[in-house]
Structures are given as structure tokens and as C-alpha cells.
Amino acid sequence: MIAKIIQIFSLTLTFLYYSIPTLIIGLFISQILIEGNIIKKIYFIGRVFTKIANLPEECGLAITTSFIEPRMANIMLVDFYKKGIINKKELYISSLIDAFPAILRHWDSLLPILIATLGFFGVVYFIILVLIGFIQTMIFIIVGKITLKSRKYKEENVDKKIRLNKDVFYKAFKNTLKYGIPIIRDIIIASFITSFLIELGFFSYLTEIIKNTAYSLPFSVEEITVAVTQPINYIGAYVLAGEFLNKGILNELEVFRSLLLGSVLSSIPALRFLAPYYMGIYGFKDGFNIMMISTAVRVLITVVFIIIISLAL
Questions:
Q1: Which tens digit of pLDDT belongs to each residue from 162-196?
Q2: In the chain, what are the domain boundaries?
Q3: 234-246 and 252-265 helices cross at what angle (nearest 10)?
């Protein structure tokens, strides 16, 4: 029993070690970009999304920020919601629109690994992932277009002069503390709950069910091997897929299908890391809802891609 408790606290500390320092650094940098007016230089990107989706103009600033730091974008949305600038439906839609910027933002960490293991086809696979994120974003833009009332937008007339002085850094530091402390509190609680569920075997049980289901699919043994490796070690899955491709055991479409299947299988284990993030920023109820909606829609889109590839084989 004591060993279990120690393990739960150890896992919690591991979550916090990998999440809190980067969160604080990201918050501070993002606040400098906002307070220094740097983000408004590319404000037009988010404005396009908000106009199509009938979202308030403030959401455009958050969506623009998501291309640089998705966490800060989500924090901004929560702040707008708490101040009454946006309602809950607008909060949900704006957050779910971030799927495309979020995956695009990972190019610097994911693309080099894919190129190293799969070469040109790694680039193609990354484009497929970006396309899935883009489709997810478009789905929620359409949801906003249909469910939100049309609104008139002012002509874009924002101050774009960059300011970098001690007042900007002071405000950035002050806002980092303002936003960071309650988020860190919620992340600690969510991390502890997640660690408890891990030790209870909850995620392992769900993962095992999904793996057993995968073995019943009409895919080759090699494809299933790549797919079930991905939730354990995604780099290992890419290396394995690259080896099968180079040896001619799997063709290009089969590699894409196996990796996409692996991304579906990874959805449940990924909740272990997503839960503290979403619940820390949005609160437990809204964080859980947004996380599950985003995960479910992404999985459904990925399954459609798998079906399309299977029909092409």
C-alpha cells in the first residue's frame, strides 16, 4: 500500500516536472509577445478564422497566439470567458478550432524524427496529420458558422507598433503569476488524479482492450506490430515502419495506414498527459469535455483516412 502511494506521488512529480517549467516559460514568452504588441503583427491570421466562424474578435487574438503557443491561447480564451467577453459555446468552439495550429506547431519536434526514420514519406505522413488537424478545425468553424449568430466586425485598426521595455517585461511577469498560479494548482490536482488512475490500471485496461481489438482487424501482422508499438514508443514505431518500408515488407500506403492506426490506439494512453493540461487550464468539467470532444473528432477523422487508404490498396 505504501509502495503504491509512493509511486502515485512519484508519477505526479514526473508529470509536474515535465509540464510546469515549460508552462511557465511559455506563459512568460507569450505575455511578452502580447504586451509588446508583437502578436498583433500577425493578428490577421486569427481574424480570418473568427470571421468565418462568427466568433468574437477577441478569439482571433487567441487563435493567432495558438500558432506560437497553444497553451497561452487556451489561457487567453479562459480569461475572456471569465470576464464575460465570450460565452461557453464560443469558448468551446474557439478551443476546438486550435487543432490545426496545434499540430502545425509540432513541426520542429515531429518532422525531423519522421524525416530521419521515413525520409520523404515521413514528410507525407506529417502532411496527412496536418490535414487531419485542418479538417478538425474546419468542422468546428462550420459548427460556429451554423450555431453562432452573425456579427458585424469593425475594420481592422489595431496598434501594431512593437514595444519592448521594462514595463512590458513587468506586465509579462505579473500576468504570468496571475494566470500561472491557478493553473499550476489545477494541474497538480489533475496530475495526482491521473497518477492514481494509472496505478489503478485504468489506462492499461483500456489500452489492452483497444490492442486486442486491433489484432482482429484485417491488417497484416507487420502493420499491427507498428500500430501497437506506437502507444508505447512512437519513435520506435516510426523506426519499425521505416525498416518495413525499406525492406519492401510494407508499401507506402500500408505504412501510412499502420501509423494512422497507431495514432488511434495512442489516443487512450495520451489522455494521461492531456487530462492535467486541459483540466488545469479549463477546469475539471470543461477541460474534460473539450478534451474528449477533440479526441473523439480527431479519432473519427483518422478512421476515415484509414478507410480511404484501405480502399486504395
A1: 666 778 788 888 888 887 787 787 778 777 777 77
A2: 1-151+168-312
A3: 160
27-45 per-position pLDDT tens digit: 787 777 777 766 666 667 7
Distance from C-alpha of 142 to C-alpha of 148, rounded to nearest angstrom: 10
Report d(CA 154, CA 151) in Å as an integer.
Answer: 10
Residues 163-194: b if buried by 16+ CB within 10 A, e if exposed = eeeeebeebbeebbeebbeebbebbbebbbbb
Instruction: For cell 458585424, name the residue.
Output: 152
- The pTM assigned to this predicted structure is 0.80
